[in-house]
Amino acid sequence: MAVVDVPVMERNLARMAALAAGAGIRLRPHAKTHKMPAVARRQLAHGATGLTVATLREAEVFVDAGVDDLLLAHPPVGSAKLRRLSALAGRLRRCAVALDSVELATALPASVDVYWEVDTGLHRIGTAPGDATVAQVQALIEAIGSARFRGLITHGGQSYAAATPDARAAAAAEESNGLLQTAALLQVQGIAPSELSIGATPTAEFAGRFQHGATRITEMRPGTYVFGDANQVTLRSQRLDDCALAVVATVVSRPADDRAVLDAGSKALSADLRVPGLVGYGIVLGSPDLTVARLSEEHALVTGVEAGRLRPGDRLVIVPAHVCTTINLHPAILFIDEAGATWQPVEARGWS
């Protein structure tokens, strides 16, 4: 069972909103982390200008919930996705897509704006900062017109490989400066991007520190911050006290003095993305000696000296390594606050 401590979540929402406001940057959180309209409404109430989504399923769920400004940060390739995007665009006040293909941009509905993706170090989607991006943006504007070119976008995902705080700060500089320097080259060509959009929870605290002349980052898209996870704690971008979501698991066996087995395997805890320095698949609250050492589908193997005191029926509370992919495993999350507990459906879960 996954549970959320609502006051901790609200504190996280308020802190990130204040950080963005203090830096003069618009906040467009990535809703792929929570996938829940209930949480999206709280982000908007805290001042978010709109949402970022990863899938058309997420986009459809949030539009149905009344969100009217979305950025799809994943190229919608194929006729089926383009038809769904067209239907969505007609229901949105503002709709944009992030991509790195002029050909794909020409296939988008005419009401959809475009962010051009720049690869500032993650080496996933995007063109290299500098002249390579300038040439592609010029081709993009020639193909779809300047009015639909929203700006430049990047994701500093390389920050998840940072083994030290200095390395995380360096990844943040790489993320922001790659956009700023490219924007300066575009301005020489008479092209002024209205948005320079960055996005990663580990780099969020640095978002307002970089500028090129008078040009600054305009938008940030962190996602994980809403709940936190063991990765963020290990990276020191959030504290353990900032982790609002955990998975409650039950001991089902203690086959040895240094080993216990839980009922929460890879179908309850994410097996994805462990950052440098994180040992195991999460943090067991109140038991620093215990390590979630191995996951099977229905079993989690917990090791450590403290495992010897565990008995079948005991419960452990685990902050997962990666909260985004953990949430996608759960059809509903139990939200707990002073008023009691309520189940919130994870309506936008799934692949597409």
Compact overview of the structure:
By secondary structure, this protein is α/β, with parallel strands linked by helices.
Can you walk me through this structure?
The chain is 29% helix and 24% strand. The protein contains nine helices and 19 strands. It has helices spanning 6-23, 37-45, 56-64, 79-89, 102-107, 131-144, 165-188, 230-235, 323-327; strands at residues 2-5, 26-27, 51-53, 69-72, 94-99, 113-117, 149-153, 195-198, 211-212, 215-216, 219-220, 245-256, 259-262, 282-284, 291-295, 300-303, 315-320, 332-337, 340-345. Strands 1, 12, 13, 14, 15, 16, 17, 18 and 19 form a nine-stranded mixed sheet that branches. An eight-stranded parallel sheet has the order 2-11-8-7-6-5-4-3. A hairpin with a 2-residue loop joins strand 9 and strand 10 (215-216). Helix 6 crosses helix 7. The longest helix is centred in the middle third of the chain and has 24 residues, at 165-188.
List keywords for this structure.
19 strands; single chain; 24% strand; alpha/beta; 9-stranded mixed sheet; 352 residues
| Radius of gyration, in angstroms, nearest whole number | 21 Å
Helix content: 25-40%
Structural class: alpha/beta
Q: What is the overall silhouette?
A: globular
